[in-house]
Design a protein that fits this description.
Layout: H1 5-14, H2 19-23, H3 25-65, H4 80-106, E1 112-122, H5 127-133, H6 135-159, H7 162-171, H8 174-178, H9 196-206, E2 207-212, E3 217-224, H10 227-285, H11 290-321, H12 327-349, H13 362-399, E4 402-408, H14 421-449
Antiparallel strand pairs: 1-3, 1-4, 2-3
């Protein structure tokens, strides 16, 4: 066991030993142990005094702070305001919830739902038509999706409109269908002597439409008090919606072919005028085919020139053998003169002052005929081009026609899903509880202000 050198020094100072005792190691260790014990006892006494002073200070602090501590609250007791809160909770929350639950489970008639789902489809433009129209075909193909989306938006609004209610009402007696349990369930039934506005508002409650503007998918749920009536209403809504889409498609088709039809009418009118002008020219000049008439005239002139050549040869032969005054020589000369006169007359027809068909020269006649022929050929080509454009526009309009594609046909319900009693009760309880809480907070706020 090691000893503290400082403690050993103090021990040697506290107890003096004789020289003989210092030589005895047992006595020396015993004296050192006694002195060390006395030293530790003194340190413990000082520590005890310090702790007593701290305890006294703490007690004094507690006594000084005890004056600021409030007394312990008394046990809570029911007061009049507490009874008021309980009565208010019963009147504002429990009573309405009880009345609503009692009505829903005792008098509210069951409602059946028929669900259908469809989308507005549009035929895609074909590749051949796109190649024919170039960029216009691509633009029409890109615009077909947007027009289908626009038609879906129109159809969504149309289903809530009085026009839809009127069209369905022409096929189904909606007031009778929606007031089947009016005496038993006046809350969820159509009121008596309802106007078209009342029927439209009630229609919006009984017809639920879920529409996704991104995919253009539409789901419609029609409700009625019998499964058959609900499905009949859903089928009628789909039928009227199809008619509306078809009408919109017809309008779009007419708009897309209107300009092409106008161009076709203009080309047809121009072609008729060109042909009428050519017909009047033929009647005035008494010719059917100017080319054939010209060929005939040229053939006649060629024949006369051939006869003229033969007459010249014959005259030369007679002149070599005949004497002056020979009748054959005179006859050959007269024949040659007649032929030359006929050739000159035929040539004159092709000149400026010639007497051709209609009293005009063949040059003017040919010029007029060629002008009229060019006008007719241009009108025919313009008409053919306009007709081709019209057929193309009509084909593209037919390809872009829109229609309703149903992927869920109207269903026939086997159990009543409406009215949703638990949801209505929970909603009523939630709002009633909120009203009670807000009223209580207002009451306590006003009470604190007083």
């Amino acid at each position: 066991m090691t000893q503290d050198p400082a403690a050993l020094a103090k021990t040697e100072q506290a107890i003096e030993l004789s020289e003989d005792d210092k030589k005895d190691p047992e006595k020396l260790r015993l004296v050192q142990a006694v002195n060390l014990a006395k030293h530790r006892q003194e340190e413990a006494a000082r520590e005890i005094q310090r702790l007593r002073r701290e305890l006294d200070d703490a007690v004094l602090t507690i006594k000084e702070g005890s004056a600021l501590v409030r007394p312990v609250a008394r046990p809570a007791k029911m007061r009049r305001r507490h009874y008021g809160l309980v009565v208010g909770f019963a009147a504002i929350v429990l009573l309405p919830v009880g009345l609503v639950a009692g009505y829903l489970y005792t008098r509210a008639a069951d409602q059946y739902a028929s669900t259908m789902a469809f989308t507005v489809r549009s035929e895609d433009i074909s590749s051949s038509a796109a190649d024919l129209l170039g960029g216009i075909g691509a633009g029409l193909a890109g615009a077909s999706g947007g027009s289908a989306g626009g038609d879906a938006d129109i159809l969504y609004e149309f289903m809530h409109s009085p026009d839809m209610v009127r069209r369905v009402g022409e096929q189904i007696d909606l007031p009778e269908v929606f007031s089947l349990h009016r005496d038993q369930d006046p809350v969820f039934s159509l009121p008596e002597d309802s106007t078209i506005e009342d029927l439209t508002n009630y229609w919006s409650k009984m017809l639920t439409i879920s529409y996704d503007s991104g995919s253009h998918l539409m789901e419609v749920t029609a409700r009625a008090f019998t499964p058959q009536d609900a499905r009949t209403i859903a089928e009628t809504v789909f039928s009227e919606s199809s008619r509306m889409i078809n009408a919109l498609s017809d309008i779009a088709r007419a708009d897309s072919t209107r300009y092409a039809a106008e161009d076709l009418d203009t080309a047809l009118t121009r072609l008729k005028k060109a042909r009428e002008a050519l017909t009047q020219f033929r009647l005035a000049n008494q010719i059917v085919d100017l080319q054939a008439d010209l060929q005939s005239q040229m053939g006649l002139l060629a024949s006369l020139q051939g006869q003229q050549t033969e007459a010249l040869i014959e005259l030369d032969l007679i002149s070599e053998t005949a004497r002056p005054g020979d009748p054959r020589l005179e006859q050959a000369q007269r024949r040659l003169a007649v032929i030359e006169a006929r050739v000159a007359d035929e040539r004159q027809k092709f000149g400026a002052g010639g007497d051709g068909p209609g009293g005009e020269s063949y040059a003017n006649t040919v010029a007029q005929f060629e002008s009229l022929t060019v006008d007719r050929e241009f009108a025919e080509r313009a008409y053919a081009s306009a007709l081709s454009a019209y057929d193309t526009a009509k084909a593209e309009a037919n390809r872009q026609s829109r229609y309703l594609a149903a992927y869920i046909t109207p269903t026939l319900a086997q159990q009543a899903d409406y009215p949703q009693r638990m949801r209505i009760i929970a909603t009523t309880a939630l709002f009633a509880f909120l009203i009670w809480v807000i009223s209580s907070l207002i009451f306590y706020a006003l009470r604190e202000r007083r």
